[in-house]
Amino acid sequence: MGVRNQKKEQLDRLQSKTxxxxxxxxxxxxxxxxxxxxxxxxxxxxxxxxxxxxxxTVQAPPGKITLVAVCADEPPGKSISQCAKRTVCLSLHRxxxxxxxxxxxxxxAFRQARIVDLCQEAVSQGALLTREDLAYRIFFxxxxxxxxxxxxxxxxxxxxxxxxxxxxxxxxxxxxHRVEIVRLALAGKTMSEICVASHHxxxxxxxxxxxxxxxxxxxxxxxxxxxxxxxxxxxxSLIERYLELLKxxxxxxxxxxxLDELLRIGRTTVEKxxxxxxxxxxxx
Length: 284
Fold this sequence. Notes:
By secondary structure, the protein is mainly alpha-helical. It is built from 14 helices and 3 strands. Among the domains are: 90-171; 173-273, Up-down Bundle (Zinc Finger, Delta Prime, domain 3). 70% of the residues lie in helices and 6% in strands. It has a 3-stranded antiparallel beta sheet with strand order 2-1-3. It starts with 5 loop residues before the first helix and ends with a helix.
């Protein structure tokens, strides 16, 4: 048995979380071809399309960072290279607030102030970050530095929930976190109460509730779970858990009432968006 080359393994994991690797994996699985053939297809796509894509690519807003991360529904123990990936856009720099923080307390304080929010934002977009993502793709420091930051955060607040791939998968599937957040909303808890209980940001909670509401709307149209999963770009297992919650709503008056409230808010939001689009078209 040879000696493990941990640095090479680390680089291999990082390489597997690139758009190129994501494309090659999709071609291999979708067309049932070899990795060599998929690499050849990738080369042709780059040669033909990239000169035009570079000219029309929309830039991310200031302070945002885009990266490829492992899908939140991937089970523990699975090789990173074999996991499905998702591209996420995260809010790294919040403007003058972070400028003042860095000036007063230095870059370590900035990292520690942003790590939890970044991890939660990734989860709300269906992905889980790793220490390597934080180190090499976001803050450009060593993994040891990130480990020290995490240790300090947990020392200051032992109850703090940091949704990294390692910690979430150790505690159980990330599905349970989403379902429990929706259950709290159906029980009538306020947004602030849910955020405190789940250690998630309001944006992440709103994202989960929005997905659940859309799932409920599609379920009322008698759609199959696989269709709902495809339309919402969510895993079949998550949709099935949401459908189980909808069955509970049929027997629990309190759940039923708050489900109707979520659906009403969802309809109002859609109508407002349509109204804004309509007024914009009229103005043109």
